Amino acid sequence: MISHLRPALVLFGALSIVCGLIYPYAVTGIGQAVFPEQANGSLVQRGGITVGSRLIGQSFTSPRYFWGRPSATAPMANNAAGSGGSNLGPLNPALADAVKGRVDALKAADPGNTMPIPADLVTASASGLDPEISLAAARYQLRRVAAARGLPQSAVETLIAQHAQEALFGIFGEARVNVLELNLALDALHK
Question: Cβ(152)–Cβ(24) under 8 Å?
C-alpha cells in the first residue's frame, strides 16, 4: 500500500507546485510584461479617479449619455463577477417581454425618433458585459444626447466618428464604439 501511496503523493505535490504556483506566476508575469494595461483591467482614469474599464460595460441612464447594451448579469447590472448571458432563447416569452420593455423605454426617451431600433440596444451580449455598441446604436441615440446637452447633432456625430473602431481585421464583427469612452469625450466637449 505504501509503495503505491508515495508516488501518488509525490505526483500530487509536484503538480500542486507546477499548476498552483509556477504556472499562475508565469502567466501573470507574462501578462504584466506583454499586456500590462489589459492585465490590470484596462481601467480608465480621469483626474486620478478610476471611472470605469474599457472592457466592461457601464450603466448610463441619463438622457445626456449614450446608453450601452443591456446587461444580463444579476442581481446587479454590469457585474463582472456574474458574467454570463441570460440563457433565454428567442422563443422564450420572458425575452420577448424584456425586449418589448426596452423598446418602450427607448421610444419614451426619444418619442420623435423614427429610426429602426438596433438589436444591440435591446438585447444583451453573450457575456452580459459588452462595453461597446454598434455605430447604428450610437446614431440612433445621437438626437436624444445632442438635445439633452444642447449640442448640435453634427458635433455629436463627429465624436461618434472619432471614437469609431472598425471590425477586427476588417472582417470580424462590425464597426463599433466604446460607450464609456464616448461619454467621457462628451463630458470633455461640454466643458
Answer: no
Q: How many CA atoms lie within 13 A of 132 on its CB side?
A: 16
Q: How far is CA 70 from the centre of its chain?
A: 10
Computed over its alpha carbons, how large is the radius of gyration of the chain?
A: 22
HEC letters along 30-98? HHHHHCHHHHCCCEEEECCEEEEECCCCCCCCCCCCCCCCCCCCCCCCCCHHHCCCCCCCCCCHHHHHH
Closest CA to 161 of 145, 138, 141: 138
Q: Which tens digit of pLDDT belongs to each residue from 78-121?
A: 777 677 666 778 888 988 898 899 999 999 999 999 999 999 99
pLDDT beyond 70 at 190 = no
Say if residue 1 is in the same domain as residue 64.
no
Mean pLDDT of 184-191: 83
Q: Are residues 32 and 48 in the same domain?
A: no
Look up residue 37 and give its three cell numbers.
494595461
Residue 34 bridge partners (DSSP): none
CA distance 84 to 9: 37
184 Cβ neighbours under 8 A, 6+ residues apart: 44, 46, 51
The verdict on 163 and 177 lying in the same domain is yes
